[in-house]
Design goal:
With 147 residues, this protein is α/β, with parallel strands linked by helices. It is built from seven helices and five strands, in the order βαβαβαβαβααα. Helix 2 runs parallel beside helix 3. The longest helix has 12 residues.
Length: 147
């Protein structure tokens, strides 16, 4: 199975580094970009499985970038928007409804919430069959419980 790729985009180096640290446990290659234009180029070149971006980005705003990624990947590449400025449910609603963001988190980001979202979004495309036990196992477990 090829390694997953996560594109992390933030103009702020400390934020990028802290996101990368949070994500280090994922068996994923972390690609970093510092502005929206660079991120868009990397998105096209690297074809990441997931994009985590700050809303406020130089050269191409995070909201515009989210829309481009969502449209061009036809929704197959989830985007998590992280922001310290656009706080409140109206922004979250806008981002998830009109821009196609998969998740919208406010800074300071709770690492557990971020990891849960990344885990959910990165594994969403895996066959549910792989996760579920086979029929015999289920029957054996049910029979064992009945005793």
């Amino acid at each position: 199975m090829p390694e997953k790729k996560i594109l992390v985009v933030d103009y702020d180096q400390a934020s990028r580094e802290s996101l990368t640290r949070i994500l280090k446990d994922f068996k994923a290659q972390i690609i970093q970009a510092t502005d929206g234009a660079q991120a868009y180029d990397l998105f096209k070149e690297e074809k990441p499985d997931l994009v985590i971006l700050e809303a406020i980005l130089p050269k191409l705003h995070g909201f515009d970038l989210t829309k481009k990624i969502t449209q061009e990947s036809k929704g197959s590449v989830p985007v998590i928007i992280i922001t310290g400025l656009y706080k409140g449910p109206q922004y979250k609603h806008e981002a998830m409804t009109n821009l196609g963001a998969s998740e919208y988190l406010e800074k300071p980001v709770n690492p557990e919430v971020l990891l849960e979202a990344v885990n959910r979004l990165m594994n969403a495309d895996e066959d549910i069959e792989d996760i579920l036990p086979d029929t015999e196992t289920v029957i054996a477990l049910l029979n064992a419980k009945g005793r």
